[in-house]
Every structure is written in C-alpha cells, then in structure tokens.
C-alpha cells in the first residue's frame, strides 16, 4: 500500500511503476484479512481518482491498458463486500472517474484482448460497487451507467475466433449482465431505455435466431471451452429476453423502438422457432442439452410476452391492426391457431391489446371469426392458455353487436368451470371470467337467461364464488354480474323474463348486493350499481323482504352515503331515496326490519328535502310523503 501511494505521489506518470505497484496492491487485497487491515483508504482512493482522471487518449497503448486494468482491480477489491469502502469510493468520486474511461471506449475496441482484459476489470469494479448497496446503485444510475455498460454487451460487436478471447468475452457478458441487474434492482430505478439498450438486447435474439454463433466460434476447437462459451451465451440470451419483456411493458420508448420492422421481425421469428440452435445441441451432452432447451423455451416465452407488451402501445394500435389487414395482426392470428401453447398465449393477448377499440373488436369477431378457436382454448388444461383466451373474450364481449354471437358460441358454458373455488389460486383467470360474464349480461337478456337456465346453474356458481372468494376484485366484479343481470331481466317482458327475475329474487343475491354497498365505499360506481340492483330487486315485495333481512348491515351503509357531503354525488343520493321508497312503501309497521330501517334513515331523507339540488330535494320530499305510515 505504501509503495503504491509513494509512486502515485512521486512519479504518477511513470506507467510501468504505477502498473506494477497497482498489480501488487490488487493482489494483496484479494483476501478479506488484508482488506480488513487496509488503512488510509481515503489516500488510496485519492490516488486512484487522479490516475483515472489523467487518462486521456489510450490510442491502443498496451502499457496504458495494462495500467488501467490494474487500477480497476485495486478499485474492485477495495469495495468488495464493504459498504463502508463503497461509500468512501463514491464520496471521493472515483466511480465517476472510472466511468469516464469507459465512456471514451468503443465496443469495437474490445475485440482486442488487452482492451477486453481492461473492460473485464472495470466491470469487476462496477459489480462490487453496486452489489446490494442502494446508494451506489442510485449513484451509478444517476450517471447513466446502464448505457455505458450495455454498449459493450451488443452481440454484433464481438467476434471470438480464439479460445482466450472467447473466454474473456464470456466474463464480460456475465459480469455486464450482473451490473445491469444490480442497477435495475434498486427500488427507485427510473431508467428509460434508448436505442443503445434496445439494439444490444435484440442482438442476442438475432444471434440465436440466425444461428450466427456457430460461425463466430469456428476457431474454437476445445469442446469443453466451446460448451462453456455457449452456456454463457445462452445465459446472456436469458438476461436479454427478460429485459426485453420488462422494457416492453414498462417503457413507451422501448415499445416504439422494438416495433421497428427489422427488430420486430427478428423477435417474431425467434418466438416461432422450435429447436435449440444446431451448434448448441451438438456441443453438449444429453443432460446439458435438456437443461439448455428448457432455458431456451423460457427465452422464447419471454420474447412472446415482449410482443404482447409492444402490442399494448396506443400509438401502434392502428398500425398493427389496420382494419384487420396489417401483417402484425395476421401473424398473431396464425399464432392463435398454432400447436404451440406459448404462441397461443402471446397471440391471444396481443390480439386482446389490439381489440381495445370497439371497431377492432367487432372485426375480430365478425371478420376473423376467432370465437370458436377461443372456446376451444378455454377447454385447454393449461391455465395460462385459458387465462389468455378469457382475457380476449372479455374484451370482445364489450361491443353490443358481439354479445349474441359470443353468447351462442358455448363460451359461457365453457368458462363456468373457472368460477369454481378450485381456481381461486388463479386470481387473474377468475377476475377475467367474472368480467366476461358481466359484459355479456349488460343490456343482453338472452345471455342473462343462459346464466340462470344452464345446468348446473352459472348463477349459483357466481353466488358461491362471491361468498367464498378472498379476492376483493373477484367479489366486486362477480356481484356486478348480478347487477347487470337484474337490469336485463327487469327491462324485459314476457314469461322468460319473469322466470329469470324469480331466479335473481333470492336472499343470496340480496345479501351480495348489500355487501357490495357496504364494502366498497371508496368507489362511487360500485355504490351506485349496488343501489340500482337493490332498487330493482326491492320493486317486488319478495325481493324487498330479502333485502330487509340485511337491515343491520344495510341501514348504517345507506346512512353513511346520505350523510356524506364530500365524496358522494347527488345522483347517488337520489337513487338511494328511491331504494328507500321501494323498501318501505309496501311494508307495514309490523315489519320490524322495515321499522328499523325507517327509524334510522327517515331523518336523513327529510334533511335532503332542503337540498340545493332541485331534483334531489323534490325526490326526497316525494319519497318522504309516500312512506309516511298512518
């Protein structure tokens, strides 16, 4: 240590002496005992800072590259497993100086072995500095470390025709991805990927799809080394595809970059591949090939999810769909028909993203005629396939012109199994399912009739799910099926409508609606829908009796709504007045539940008679007059 400090002070420009002193110090710091005994850390960091800062143009000077390699080794070992030294290092701005050197390098330069060794040492510094220490992670993110690192991870920039270079590059890839993961793992990481990052990630997908890796390693003859290099390449592909998936869902900029024709075609073509590249399959034993094939499948699935993320971009919807004529949506339709489940999943979800407009949704049903295939996929044993199909069916069920065709397709019957408690561990699937039924029952009596007529009863399955599910979203959306089913029945006439009404007129239905009103005070739309459903149910004496059986819960909830001057709008209060009227109007004083409800709420209704909202005050006055018992 003293030798390094003395040389740094006395002859800082003597490259040979600085290199030798740095090498010796780096070697000595490889053991935890020597690192613990290290004193004058601040002086060493100051010397390192000056050495990095005085690096200007390297100009392929081998001696300068070796000097930097050893300086990076010292820096890496100082902050290894020491948060104290990591903090001292960033306080001394050594990280900024060290990054400055990397900024000046080009990816093409690391095809040279001395540059590659230096970069490997620099990556070692960044790994040790960023490992499980959020202050240094945030610091590196603030200084745009990610694009500096990623530019060296672009697969197109590296040619490895000899053993030593290939092995060195394997370290660079491995350590580079570790740095990237460290930087992205910080809680407040806000990194907007640009063309550098997207190009680098796509380069790995392209290399495996085009199988160019076979030619690039043609000079490697040792089978063990070749297998190790391929294994590291596969690991890099895994890291790249996971990041592509993340960026496609989190970043608008990334989605727009990935939608460029050349990149998108590579992603789509890679996702469609079936076998491990020939070079990898031929270089390993059966056990390794099986493990690699599993990883490769996960990479293709991640790229499929990336495609789904890209398709979610609003700015791309028209381009990707184009009235059903766009190459992208046509390719997704082929994925939907594929015998590969992962393509079924991604294709279905991508079409779902494009079918968020009513026009596109109608084209998907009427022109593409995909409903029979979706019903077929609902019967698949794979819940991921079922979930994707259910999500798309939910979207397609929104337009009124689609409801009849979907209702007659067998989709409602096929989806019933997902209402079972045996699927409660797959919350997204159940949530999509109840949303699907809700959409189909909205202003559509025939589909509502299917819910009550089918054996076993879909309505009963919904009620069991509402009562037993632990998920708030599933319970609320499930109850909204009841609301819209009731509306459809009550606005319809005839014997079938009367029969359907009788099925909804039950205590379990009334109880579910009351709980929706009681448990979702934060959401006015849910409060209002609960009130509307209860109001229609209470329009008949039997329905009112079932609701009044829940007075102990209902009355306090209604009282809170009526007394709320801040959150609840006047329209909701007006609807509550009508509900109150329906519940009380046909009852007598002998009905203890009605008497209790009236006693708790009558004064609140009376106070609304003087409300500034003319319609509300008139309604309240009318209700109060009509519900006065003699």
From TrEMBL:
PROSITE patterns: ARM_REPEAT (PS50176). GO terms for cellular component: cytosol; endoplasmic reticulum; mitochondrion. SMART domains: ARM (SM00185). Its main location: cytoplasm. ARM repeats lie at residues 369-411. The keyword Cytoplasm applies. Keywords: Cytoplasm, Endoplasmic reticulum, Mitochondrion. InterPro entries: ARM-like, ARM-type_fold, Armadillo, RAP1GDS1. It is found in: Cytoplasm, Cytosol; Endoplasmic reticulum; Mitochondrion. This is Rap1 GTPase-GDP dissociation stimulator 1-B. One of its GO terms (molecular function) is guanyl-nucleotide exchange factor activity. SUPFAM superfamilies: ARM repeat.
């Amino acid at each position: 240590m003293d030798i390094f400090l003395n040389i740094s002070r006395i002859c800082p420009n003597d490259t040979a002496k600085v290199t030798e002193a740095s090498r010796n110090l780096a070697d000595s710091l490889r053991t935890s005992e020597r690192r613990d005994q290290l004193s004058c850390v601040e002086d060493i960091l100051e010397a390192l800072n000056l050495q990095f800062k005085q690096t200007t143009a390297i100009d392929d000077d081998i001696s300068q590259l070796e000097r930097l390699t050893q300086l990076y080794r010292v820096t890496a070992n100082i902050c290894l497993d020491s948060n104290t030294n990591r903090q001292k290092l960033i306080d001394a701005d050594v990280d900024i100086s060290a990054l400055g050197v990397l900024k000046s390098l080009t990816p093409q330069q690391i095809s040279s072995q001395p540059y590659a060794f230096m970069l490997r040492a620099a990556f070692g510094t960044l790994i040790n500095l960023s490992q499980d220490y959020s202050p240094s992670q945030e610091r590196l993110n603030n200084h745009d470390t990610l694009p500096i690192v990623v530019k060296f991870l672009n697969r197109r920039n590296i040619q490895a025709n000899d053993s030593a270079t290939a092995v060195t590059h394997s370290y660079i890839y491995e350590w580079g991805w570790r740095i990237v993961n460290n930087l992205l793992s910080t809680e407040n990481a806000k990194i907007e990927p640009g063309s550098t990052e997207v190009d680098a990630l796509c380069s790995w997908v392209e290399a495996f799809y085009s199988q160019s890796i076979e030619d690039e390693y043609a000079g490697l003859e040792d089978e063990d080394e070749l297998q190790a290099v391929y294994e590291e390449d596969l690991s890099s592909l895994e890291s790249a595809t996971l990041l592509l998936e993340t960026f496609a869902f989190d970043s608008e900029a990334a989605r727009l970059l990935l939608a460029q024709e050349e990149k998108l075609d590579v992603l789509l073509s890679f996702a469609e591949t079936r076998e491990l590249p020939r070079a990898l399959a031929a270089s390993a034993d059966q056990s390794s090939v099986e493990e690699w094939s599993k990883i490769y499948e996960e990479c293709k699935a991640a790229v499929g999810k990336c495609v789904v993320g890209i398709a979610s971009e609003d700015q791309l919807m028209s381009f990707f769909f184009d009235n059903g004529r766009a190459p992208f949506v046509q390719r997704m339709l082929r994925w939907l028909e594929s015998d590969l489940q992962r393509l079924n999943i991604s294709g279905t979800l991508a079409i779902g993203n494009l079918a968020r407009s009513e026009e596109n949704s109608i084209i998907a049903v009427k022109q593409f005629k995909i409903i029979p295939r979706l019903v077929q996929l609902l019967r698949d044993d794979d819940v991921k396939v079922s979930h994707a199909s259910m999500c798309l069916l939910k979207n397609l069920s929104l337009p009124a012109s689609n409801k009849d065709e979907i209702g007659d397709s067998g989709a409602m019957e096929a989806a019933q199994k997902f209402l079972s408690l045996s699927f409660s561990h797959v919350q997204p699937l159940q949530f999509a399912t109840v949303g699907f039924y809700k959409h189909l029952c909205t202003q559509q009596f025939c589909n509502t009739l299917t819910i009550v007529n089918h054996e076993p009863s879909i309505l009963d399955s919904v009620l069991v799910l509402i009562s037993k599910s632990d998920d708030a979203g599933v319970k609320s959306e499930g109850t909204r099926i009841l609301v819209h089913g009731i509306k459809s029945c009550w606005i319809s006439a005839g014997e079938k409508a009367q029969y359907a009404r009788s099925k909804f007129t039950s205590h379990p239905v009334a109880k579910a609606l009351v709980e929706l009103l009681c448990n979702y005070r934060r959401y006015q739309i849910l409060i209002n829908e609960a009130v509307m459903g209860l109001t229609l149910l209470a329009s008949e004496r039997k329905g009112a009796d079932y609701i009044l059986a829940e007075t102990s819960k209902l009355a306090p909830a209604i009282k809170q709504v009526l007394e709320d001057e801040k959150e609840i709008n006047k329209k909701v209060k007006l609807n509550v007045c009508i509900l109150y009227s329906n519940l009380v109007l046909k009852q007598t004083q002998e009905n203890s539940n009605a008497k209790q409800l009236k006693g708790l709420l009558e004064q609140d209704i009376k106070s609304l008679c003087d409300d500034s909202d003319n319609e509300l005050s008139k309604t309240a006055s009318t209700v109060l007059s009509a519900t006065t018992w003699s």
